[in-house]
Amino acid sequence: MSLPTRSATYASVIGAVLSEERERRVMTQASVAAIAGLTQSTWGRMELGRACTLENLGKASVALNIKLWELMKVVDDRVAGLENQGIQVVYELPTEEELKANQEHWVVGSSQISKLSLVGLGALSGIALGGVSSYIASIFKK
């Protein structure tokens, strides 16, 4: 399988946005997980781009007091920003073996994805990170 220069998973972009929203609210993984009715380890896996089931995302959006569609809109815009930078976003999670065998091809971790997707998002829309709610509000003002 021939990979492009860099790839990221859609789920890892979701994880990056969840991590940013949690940190913006100055909450720990344990505290937001408790509000969501999840374990801290499940929340941690979600921020890593794992365990991102629709049920868990619904619970996360309630815990963060944002609508699920707003969360997914931000994720989709981040994906567009990454793709504009030549980073392919894939929808299937690679195995641990694939990640290890092709480490230089995968953008992983919420801090890497956040940094790259914000650069791309800024180029797309000219906005800075202000959280999901303020971003969604800015879209409707245009």
Name a few traits of the molecule.
142 residues, mainly alpha, two-stranded parallel ribbon, 63% helix, globular
Largest sheet: 2 strands, parallel
Helix and strand composition category = mainly alpha
Query: Which whole number gives the mean pLDDT?
Result: 80
User: Counting H and I runs of at least 4 residues, what is the number of helices?
Assistant: 8
Q: How many DSSP-defined strands?
A: 2
CA-to-CA gap between the ends? 42 Å
Highest-level CATH class: Mainly Alpha
Radius of gyration: 15 Å
Q: What is the H/E string?
A: EHHHHHEHHH
- Please state the second-level CATH architecture: Orthogonal Bundle
- Specify the overall morphology: globular
CATH topology: 434 Repressor (Amino-terminal Domain)
The total number of structural domains is: 1
Strand order of the largest sheet: 1-2
Contiguous runs where pLDDT drops below 50 for at least 5 residues: 119-128
Describe this structure in words.
It is a single chain. The protein has 8 helices and 2 strands; from the N terminus they run E-H-H-H-H-H-E-H-H-H. With 142 residues, the protein is mainly α. Helix 1 (10-24) crosses helix 5 and helix 1 packs across helix 7. The protein has one domain: lambda repressor-like DNA-binding domains (434 Repressor (Amino-terminal Domain), Orthogonal Bundle). Helix content is 63%, strand content 6%. The N and C termini lie far apart (42 Å). A two-stranded parallel ribbon has the order 1-2. It has helices at residues 10-24, 29-36, 40-47, 54-63, 68-84, 96-101, 110-125, 132-141; strands spanning 6-9, 87-90.
